[in-house]
Design brief:
The complex is a heterotrimer of chains A (150), B (291) and C (797). By secondary structure, chain A is of the alpha+beta class. Chain A contains 4 helices and 7 strands, in the order E-H-H-E-E-E-E-E-E-H-H. A 7-stranded antiparallel β-sheet of chain A has the order 1-7-6-5-4-3-2. In chain A, helix 1 packs across helix 2 and helix 2 packs across helix 4. The mean pLDDT of chain A is 89. Chain B is globular, with a radius of gyration of 19 Å. A 5-stranded antiparallel β-sheet of chain B has the order 4-5-10-6-7. A 4-stranded antiparallel β-sheet of chain B has the order 11-12-13-14. The longest helix of chain B has 24 residues. With 291 residues, chain B is of the alpha+beta class. Chain B has 3 domains: 47 residues, 2-Layer Sandwich (Uridine Diphospho-n-acetylenolpyruvylglucosamine Reductase, domain 2); 111 residues, Uridine Diphospho-n-acetylenolpyruvylglucosamine Reductase, domain 3 (2-Layer Sandwich), CATH 3.30.465.10; 109 residues, Enolase-like, domain 1, CATH 3.30.390.50. In chain B, helix 10 runs antiparallel to helix 11 and helix 11 runs antiparallel to helix 12. Chain C is globular. In chain C, 56% of the residues are buried. Classes of the chains: A alpha+beta (150), B alpha+beta (291), C alpha+beta (797). Chains B and C meet through helix 12 of B and helix 4 and helix 20 of C.
Chain lengths: 150, 291, 797
């Protein structure tokens, strides 16, 4: 499943970069993140619980940042496994300055395996979009609270 | 097909159900007819720690007329709605919709409240509930509140219901003379869910479309009122051409779903086709030209 | 069998039905043994991955868990999954019963958990932690066999399992002489058999007696017994396989599965009975699939529509491993690619491709529906190209009744047929000429009626042995009990076909009893003689013939005894109403029971005769049988939605002589419905990562009663010369004949839009797109003639 989109964040590019690369801040953006701890350079162990109404799945796995070109672009990989199967997402994020704000563009691939893939195909796209939306909403909220000067 | 362990409660009264819901918070799920929740639990996609079964609860399955409205208890089954002589006489749209759900076994177990609270994007009722401008009553230990159907559905599988609330009653209008309504549906061949389901309600006055409401399900992440269609029709004289043109707007601005059975583009096109069909049938019924 | 009969040929209701309808039948899941444990499998969510590590510790210590085993724990103790098909240059690594180091499809078993109850088991399954390193999966069979694709099995570095080639006649000459060459790609999508009862296995080992009993929902109890003995290293005489009630198979239980061996092994290892019952989800993922071929055809024809030669190239998606007959099935397609036509020259190339999916294998029709679909689509393509009636094109290419036995260029010899007669009857019964007029009229109104034909021949009654991987015969023992009741023990293994009824009809007819006096026993290797099983429409033609011959042997013996007792010529005795009658001397008779009594008490037997009344026959036919028929389907398409509605269905089938027309009709109806499934609804879809996204009945659409028209069935009767009953078999005919009839009707309905082919399933959106994106966009109410002209113009480009 392809995912792509863009969002305008009311913060300087450096701040957005900082948010995406600081594990503590990243953890707050990740929907349902229960744990995120360092496991090597730019690699973190994570536990997340994705939920949509009654449907939920707990996954444990890793987040990895790579191809970092501060402050313009980086690649984020998230993979995890849990009782409903596994999920894997990988994509590139590009940041551009737009009149003091930052435009974030993302483009990537998401894959789920196991039970969710077999029974959830009609809802998966929307669910993925909502989770990404939640991520950026949380990011925007964090940036708002940290602007100005914090 | 065995769910994860859970604790089962079967409250006898609404008060008891609300107390249990307050106590267990979002670790609890309400069980009505069980046709959506139980399969998810058996596949372990849902694993609530507490299941509160509303099936033993008295007084939530009724269909009665109250001040020109028809009040329906949330635990009323699809079969009861399908076969209710009161609804068939005064609000046949709901009976027609219930008859289009699943199969006999599903209709004997599934409930109106359960279906609406679950808010499956392809469920049948939401289209008709929207077209009927129903009132949704929700109880919590804090009291009772009601919202219009148009405000009830928020997103895929997400409604107005807050933690601690139970949908208890749905009120629909008794349709008077000059009003006609119809539900037309394209079924998903495997599940029977609506790929597209459209409910239209029209009132004719002096040959013109005085009141009009169109509810659409299956097309987007949530059921919606096709306001663009309604606007294109309101106050005008119904003609085959007008209905067809207005129906073209059925999916305008909607984030259409895509799955194995229908792409987003096809869904949008079918929304127009089935909107036109529902409108034609509703107008004919309002005019008394067809049953 | 030409004389008047009392039971044979009569529509008796099925003896099996009351117990099924009343819920009194016993399936594997209904069986409970003392101390029984429950097993479940941990399955891969990955289509292709290395298994880095399996942590079973948490599951091991969970409440109620008895054991958790991985491939490591059973290494050297359970042999690989057997494949009975042998083709030249077949290359693929055998399938281990538990994945070893690597998984190759979603659903492959990695570990097995055994617990004291199903609840503890289910919870423990979630506790087995498998660490995978994912590999790139190969999902598309054509990509799989192209350069640079990831490799599934080292012995096959190009993912080609085998190439099967066949050439008959002078194909070069045929194409040189052709007025026209017609080309088309025709797909046969992957299907899930979806037997109503999923698979299930229960095994019990008695260490004192050293006997292993395995109850399995299978179509082949004896072959399973032999294979299990080999896989487990157990002496075969101590292994017993029992098939309790089997809730459908459609070929999916004509196999030996890893679970059968693992459960049997566990029963021996743990010393307690162990049961496993497949979930519907597992049934979708890890029970064999059917079809899945890509066919490319090139046909050389004369301007009159006479076939000169055909080239076929077929890529068959075999999935990740060989199951019992996996590689063989596409070759059955190859053998039948001439259809019921004179094909002077043929060239066939079949490539078996390995992909990261569940194996394909025999599914109702097993290779023949694919062949029939290809050739029947081709006949309609020829008719459309030459603007001729599809019935006329077919007639032109049929061999004549005098041509039988008829040898095809693919190397098979059709036993007997009259294709003209069945087609004529189908056209007459469907009112074909009137339908064509109706179609023209409706087209003018913007309504799209489609009329589809299919004339098929198929290959049935799987035998002789020379053409079968594991023997092409069948056995039956008939025993007349001292009280006059008859037991027929058949080596065939019916699982819905109704042979408990039809064999009883034979017994009653031959011995002059009633069907209630005859009981049919099957599916217990300790009770019935070794047999091959029920598949390939062989139950009656091969198994029934064995029973018939044993019945005749006993009748002859009883006649000898009666003749001796009565002082009559045994040749002149007849059996009826429970008595044996003399034809020569008025109403002289003795009770059958007296002759039976004489056989058992053995005091008044003719000199030298053995006591007892048991007869066994192992029957091997000299050839396959080739049932045939003609089907007509009428559809109407809703131009606004693309929805296809079946309006009318007329089937004329010739399965030779008929023992019970009710059973035949039931088989034809069921077969047609399964064809409706493939033609209109069913499709096993794997996404690009190898996930089966039609993994349950919410998305995998089976045909429902509401989608079906009234099915009109007729028969012609051309007895088969290869068995004394003259029967051919009818278990798969409906599925084989109906799929192309339906699609031909759909394509015919879309002719005004310039459509020449539609891939299955004929889903609404697919049809809708063809109608709405057909260039140039046509006005919906254009008259048919104008449409036909436009269509012709478009083709000329």
């Amino acid at each position: 499943m392809k995912v792509q989109g863009q969002i305008l964040l009311a913060a300087a590019r450096g701040q957005v970069w900082d948010l995406l690369t600081d594990p503590a801040k990243l953890a707050k953006c990740l929907p349902g993140c229960e744990k995120l701890e360092a496991a090597g350079p730019d690699r973190y162990k994570v536990s997340v619980k994705f939920a949509l109404a009654a449907i939920s799945g707990s996954y444990s796995g890793a987040v990895e940042l790579s191809e970092k070109k501060q402050p313009e672009s980086l690649r984020i990989m998230l993979e995890g496994k849990g009782t409903p199967g596994f999920m894997k997402g990988e994509g590139r994020i590009r940041l551009t300055e737009k009149q003091g704000q930052t435009e974030l563009r993302y483009e990537g691939e998401a894959q789920v395996g196991g039970m969710i893939a077999a029974v959830g195909q009609r809802m998966i796209d929307v669910a993925a979009r909502r989770i990404i939306q939640q991520f950026f909403d949380a990011a925007a909220a964090q940036l708002r609270s940290s602007v100005p000067g914090a | 097909m065995i769910p994860a362990p859970f604790e089962y409660h079967a409250p006898k009264s609404l008060e008891e159900a609300l107390r249990l819901l307050d106590r267990h918070g979002d670790e609890a799920k309400l069980l009505a007819g069980g046709h959506s929740l139980l399969p998810m639990m058996k596949l372990r996609l849902a694993a609530p720690r507490f299941v509160i079964d509303l099936g033993r609860l008295k007084g939530l399955d009724y269909i009665r007329e109250e001040q020109g409205m028809i009040a329906i208890g949330a635990m009323t089954t699809h079969a009861e709605i399908e076969n209710s002589s009161l609804l068939r006489a005064k609000c046949p749209l709901l009976s027609e919709t219930a008859a289009a759900i699943g199969d006999v076994q599903v209709r004997n177990r599934g409930t109106l409240g359960g279906s609406l609270a679950h808010a499956d994007p392809a469920a049948d009722y939401p289209a008709s509930i929207l077209a009927l401008e129903a009132q949704m009553t929700m109880n919590s230990s804090m009291g009772v509140r009601a919202v219009d159907a148009a405000e009830f559905f928020l997103d895929m599988l997400t409604t107005q219901l807050r933690p601690g609330e139970i949908l208890t009653e749905i009120r629909v209008p008794a349709l008077g003379k000059g009003t006609g309504a119809a539900y037309c549906k394209l079924s998903q061949p495997a599940s029977g869910y609506a790929v597209v389901g459209v409910a239209a309600r029209v009132t004719l006055a002096a040959g013109k479309l005085a009141q009009i409401a169109v509810g659409v399900t299956g097309v987007g992440p949530k059921a919606y009122r096709a306001v663009n269609v309604e606007d294109a029709l309101r106050g005008k004289k119904a003609s085959e051409k007008l209905l067809a043109e207005a129906a073209r707007h059925a999916a305008r601005g909607v984030e259409a779903l895509a799955d194995l059975h229908a792409s987003a583009g096809y869904r949008s096109e079918m929304a127009a086709v089935f909107t036109r069909r529902a409108l034609e049938r509703a107008v004919a019924r309002a005019a008394g030209t067809k049953a | 069998m030409a004389t008047a009969t009392k039971y044979i040929g009569k529509p008796l209701k099925r003896k099996e039905d009351p117990r099924l309808i009343h819920g009194l039948a016993h399936y594997v899941d209904d069986l409970v043994l003392a101390g029984m444990l429950h097993a479940g499998f941990v399955r891969s969510p990955h289509a292709h991955a290395l298994i880095k590590f399996v942590d079973t510790s948490k599951a091991q210590s969970a409440p109620g868990v008895v054991a958790v085993l991985t491939a490591e724990d059973v290494r050297g103790q359970i042999g690989a999954v057997p494949c009975a098909a042998v083709l030249p240059d077949m290359k693929a690594a055998p399938r281990p019963v538990l994945a070893t180091g690597r998984v190759r499809f979603v659903g492959e078993a990695v570990a097995v958990v055994i617990a004291s109850d199903r609840y503890a088991l289910r919870d423990a399954l979630d506790l087995v932690d498998v660490d995978y390193e994912s590999l790139t999966p190969v999902v598309d069979p054509e990509k799989a066999i192209s350069k640079g694709a990831p490799v599934l099995h080292e012995p096959s570095p190009d993912n080609v399992a085998y190439r099967w080639e066949l050439e008959g006649g002078d194909i070069k000459k045929a194409f040189k002489q052709a007025d026209k060459v017609i080309r088309q790609r025709i797909l046969n999508q992957r299907l899930v058999p979806v037997a109503m009862e999923p698979r299930g296995v229960l095994a019990e080992y008695k260490p004192g007696e050293k006997t292993l009993t395995v109850w399995s929902s299978t179509q082949i109890p004896h072959l399973l017994k032999t294979q299990l003995a080999a896989m487990l290293g157990a002496p075969e005489h101590s292994v017993r396989v029992i098939t309790p009630e089997v809730g459908g198979g459609f070929g999916s239980k004509l196999n030996v599965y890893p679970e059968e061996a693992v459960i049997a092994h566990l029963a021996m290892r743990l010393g307690r009975p162990v049961k496993w019952v497949e979930t519907r989800r597992e049934n979708f993922l890890c029970t064999i699939h059917g079809r899945d071929q890509i066919g490319d055809v090139e046909a050389a024809v004369t301007k009159d529509g006479v076939l000169l030669g055909v080239k076929w190239r077929i890529v068959a998606d075999l999935g990740a491993y060989y199951q019992l007959l996996t590689p063989l099935i596409p070759t059955l397609t190859g053998l039948m690619l001439a259809g019921c036509y004179k094909v002077p020259a043929i060239r066939i190339e079949i490539i078996g491709a390995l992909t990261n999916k569940m194996s394909t294998d025999a599914y109702r029709g097993a290779g023949r529906p694919e062949a029939t679909y290809y050739i029947e689509r081709l006949m309609d393509l020829i008719a459309a190209e030459l603007k001729k009636d599809p019935a006329e094109i077919r007639r032109k290419n049929f061999p004549q009744p005098k041509d039988f036995p008829y040898a095809t260029p693919t190397g098979v010899t059709y036993d007997s047929a009259n294709y003209q007669k069945s087609l004529d009857l189908a056209l007459q019964k469907s009112g074909y000429a009137k339908l064509r007029k109706e179609q023209a009229k409706l087209r003018k109104q913007g309504r799209y009626l489609g009329i589809g034909l299919s004339t098929y021949v198929e290959i049935c009654a799987m035998g002789p042995s020379s053409a079968m991987p594991a023997g092409g015969w069948e056995s039956a023992t008939v025993r007349v009990e001292p009280t006059g009741k008859v037991t027929i023990l058949t080596g065939a293994s019916p699982h819905g076909q109704g042979q408990e009824t039809s064999f009883a009809q034979m017994g009653a007819e031959i011995l002059g009893l009633t069907p209630d006096d005859v009981h049919v026993v099957h599916g217990d290797t300790a009770a019935v003689p070794y047999g091959i099983g029920t598949f390939g429409s062989r139950g009656t033609a091969v198994g029934g013939t064995a029973a018939y011959k044993s019945l005749i042997k006993l009748r002859d013996k009883l006649a000898q005894i009666a003749g001796h007792l009565m002082g009559e010529d045994p040749q002149k005795l007849v059996f009826g109403d429970g008595r044996i009658w003399s034809k020569s001397a008025g109403n002289k008779s003795i009770g059958l029971i007296e002759a039976i009594g004489a056989a058992y008490v053995a005091k008044t037997l003719p000199p030298g005769m053995e006591p007892g009344l048991d007869a066994t026959t192992f029957f091997e036919p000299s050839n396959f049988t080739f049932p045939f028929g003609a089907h007509v389907c009428v559809v109407e398409i809703d131009a606004e939605t693309g929805d296809v509605r079946l309006l009318k269905y007329v089937a004329v089938d010739d399965c030779g002589n008929v023992l019970n027309p009710l059973l035949v009709e039931g088989q034809v109806h069921g077969g047609i419905v399964q064809a409706v499934g493939q033609a209109m609804f069913e499709e096993a879809v794997y996404d690009e990562h190898g996930q089966l996204i039609t993994g349950e009945l919410m998305d995998y659409a089976l045909p429902r009663a509401g989608a079906l028209p009234w099915m009109e069935t007729h028969r012609t009767v051309t007895p088969s010369p290869v068995n004394p009953l003259g029967v051919k078999g009818v278990g798969e005919a409906g599925t084989i004949g109906a799929t192309p009839a339906i699609i031909n009707a759909v394509v015919d309905a879309l002719a005004p839009f310039g459509v020449r082919h539609v891939d299955m399933p004929a889903k609404r959106e697919r049809i809708w797109k063809l109608m709405h994106e057909a260039p140039p966009r046509r006005a919906p109410r254009a008259p048919a003639k104008a449409a036909a002209r436009r269509q012709a113009g478009r083709r000329a480009k």
